[in-house]
Amino acid sequence: MIEKMELLDVDKLIEEFESMTKDAGNVQRETLKKILEENGCAEYLQNLGLNGKTDPESFKACVPLVTHNDLQPYIQRIVDGSSSPILTGKPITTISLSSGTTQGKPKFVPFNDELMETTLQIYRTSYAFRTREFPIENGKALQLIYSSKQSKTKGGLIAGTATTNVFRNSQFKNTMKAMQSQCCSPDEVIFGPDFHQSLYCHLLCGLIFREEIQFISSTFSHSIVHAFRTFEQVWEELCADIREGVLTSRITFPSVRSAMAKLLKPNPELADLIQKKCLGLNNWYGLILELFPNVKYIYGIMTGSMEPYLKKLRHYARDLPLISADYGSSEGWIGANVNPNVPPELATYVVLPNIGYFEFIPLKENVEEAKPVGLTEVKVGEEYEVIITSFAGLYRYRLGDVVKITGFHNLSPELKFICRRNHMLTINIDKNTEKDLQLAVEAASKLNTEEKLEVLDFSSHVDLSTNPGHYVIFWEISGEVRDEVLEECCNCLDRSFVDAGYVSSRKINAIGPLELRVVQRGTFQKILDHYVGLGAALSQFKTPRCVGSTNNEVLQILCNNVVKSYFSTAF
Ligand code: AMP
């Protein structure tokens, strides 16, 4: 049992957040000062002629906007073991691998204690607001979290995904305890070497502790949907393990087996109960509540590229609240969800003004000429690209995310995540983002619900090997769907890209008919496996929505698994 006194003081956390956001402008100036003072001796800043100045005006005048590519040579020297202050005052000892699922391959970004502390700060902040609305009791959480392999770089630094670096930090566990959010699975499962085996054991632990589970979470909600889709396949095996008290032979790693052996005892009553519940469900509707009767909510990032999984999540969760988790990246955290009552489709994130220095490039203007504005200068209704200056050696770093300002919480803006900037379908004058693609897929998949058409996952590609080039949309679907329906879906996809550049190009055939390619069941699992093989963790996995020609391996997986293809006749 957790002592009451160990729990976080929710009122105090909310009060601190309120007073900080009321003073967002000053807090930003102070934060920048702190970052520049702590890291002023770093070679990167020394070379930019700041000469000890720490005010935003001098900072903007001296320090250029950069992308990851610009910083790559500096980061590489750190990775290779140089211990001189390159990007930060204190040497970097840990490297995060970004998921790479947005870019094609993982990027290295510095990780340090300050980044860990900002991570915990954002966890605590959103927990405080969440708990006020949806209190939980002492119990456990089914956290579908996975650690990637941690390796050593050539220079001896520890490297793993950002989530791995966080989960492995001792403070993570303490904070989870204080947030009544202890994972029901043992460490050996979270850090198990094979995520298929870890996933199975997470589900098994969840069932063993079913009465105690207070909420279900993951970093990105894809992992939750993925877990319950897997449950549909393995539930009988799980029941058999519970009945006999013996773990299936599919779990082969000795550390995982011995950790699970401590939890697993023969329990035929529980096995019977789960079996009865599973057999009583209609197409698994409401599965989560049946399995975990005391669950209060589902928690994980549900916006952006996670939105397409909401439908399936609602199917499993029935009327349980779905709460989107916070907004951040391997490079640093940005905002907390302090309105947990809002459905995920409308979720926004309030920037924490002391976790970094933030600027925003207005997207209305020509981006190359547009001047970034400060945190408190953004305008409601406008879209911006996010620029981060962090405590971990990134200065005026273009994150590549597009956000829209939906309002202010005190003086700090509320951001709605829109899309990644570089995820763009474009052939000539057309520009369609990941969000446009998502809307088109939503429209087309709604066309014929009687056919039981379910789009399990999707991606896209610009095919320039044809003349003219054309958009290709890949769908993995479940259920038997007639060709006529898919032909209509293909036309609907084509018509749903309403961007004027696309429509006019289609009308004069400067862009060819859109092609819908249906891929075999399991294709997106192969893509996931591919990324995990590259060192990505399932926890941070995001299906690549637009696959460029340079991402040859993923493109090959998609193209090699096509079972049917349709060309639009919409224009
Ligand atoms: P990673 O490459 O794994 O560090 O992922 C970071 C990226 O995930 C961000 O730059 C965003 O594009 C996306 N992301 C993170 N949090 C959210 C969120 N709350 N909503 C939508 N997208 C998010």
Automatic annotation (TrEMBL):
Superkingdom of this protein's organism: Eukaryota
Tagged with keyword Metal-binding: no
Domain GH3 middle per the UniProt entry, residue ranges: 349-420
A molecular-function term among this protein's GO annotations: acid-amino acid ligase activity
GO cellular component, as recorded: cytoplasm
InterPro entries associated with the record: GH3 (IPR004993), GH3_C (IPR055378), GH3_M (IPR055377)
Domain GH3 C-terminal per the UniProt entry, residue ranges: 435-550
Sorted UniProt keywords: Ligase
Pfam families referenced in this protein's UniProt entry, alphabetically: GH3 (PF03321), GH3_C (PF23572), GH3_M (PF23571)
Family membership: Belongs to the IAA-amido conjugating enzyme family.
Name of the protein this chain belongs to: Jasmonic acid-amido synthetase JAR1-like
Protein's organism: Gossypium mustelinum (Cotton)
